[in-house]
Amino acid sequence: MNQMEVSFSASLDNENFARTTVGAFLTPLNPTIDEIIEFKTIVAEGVSNAIIHGYNHNPECMVVMKVQIEDRQVKLIIQDYGKGIENLDQVKTPFYTTAKDLEHAGMGMTIIETLADSLEIESVVNIGTKLIITKRLKDNG
């Protein structure tokens, strides 16, 4: 198994860093362009949710991202130690959001769920949220 872990300040400026890091880490597996785009989109949605909803844009807080690869199965974990999610059932409902003033709000988890093979959400109010996302890369042989 190959794995990595990075942590970064909860600033939207770091969303691109997170996307690029995952893309670079997957490169040795020779993924398709579509697979890279899908992973970058998943990372963007998960990281921005941690920053916006978990930490309310507080750059003093840290987002932790882990990637594990085993036999083309990719497990991505995005974790914050922020305010947590009160109602886990609602969070997967399209257009549900706690930030109603944001354009396109409420689609992040739906997008992740659509692009990934699986999405698990673990959350405890005032402790934080962990997204566990899995997606298998196509065999390129």
TrEMBL record:
Per the database record, which ranges form the Histidine kinase/HSP90-like ATPase domain?
34-139
Name one molecular function that GO assigns to this entry. Answer: protein serine/threonine kinase activity
Signal sequence extent = none
Q: Show the Pfam families listed in the entry.
A: HATPase_c_2 (PF13581)
**Is Calcium a UniProt keyword of this protein?**
no
> Which keywords appear in this protein's UniProt record, sorted alphabetically?
ATP-binding, Kinase, Nucleotide-binding, Serine/threonine-protein kinase, Sporulation, Transferase
Q: Per its UniProt record, what Gene3D superfamilies does this chain match?
A: Histidine kinase-like ATPase, C-terminal domain
Question: What domain of life does the UniProt record list for this protein's source?
Answer: Bacteria
A biological process from GO = sporulation resulting in formation of a cellular spore
By its UniProt entry, which InterPro entries does this protein fall under?
Anti-sigma-factor_SerPK (IPR050267), Anti-sigma_F (IPR010194), HATPase_C_sf (IPR036890), HATPase_dom (IPR003594)
Keyword Iron present in the record's keywords: the answer is no
User: Entry's NCBIfam families?
Assistant: spIIAB (TIGR01925)
Q: What name has this protein been given in UniProt?
A: Stage II sporulation protein AB
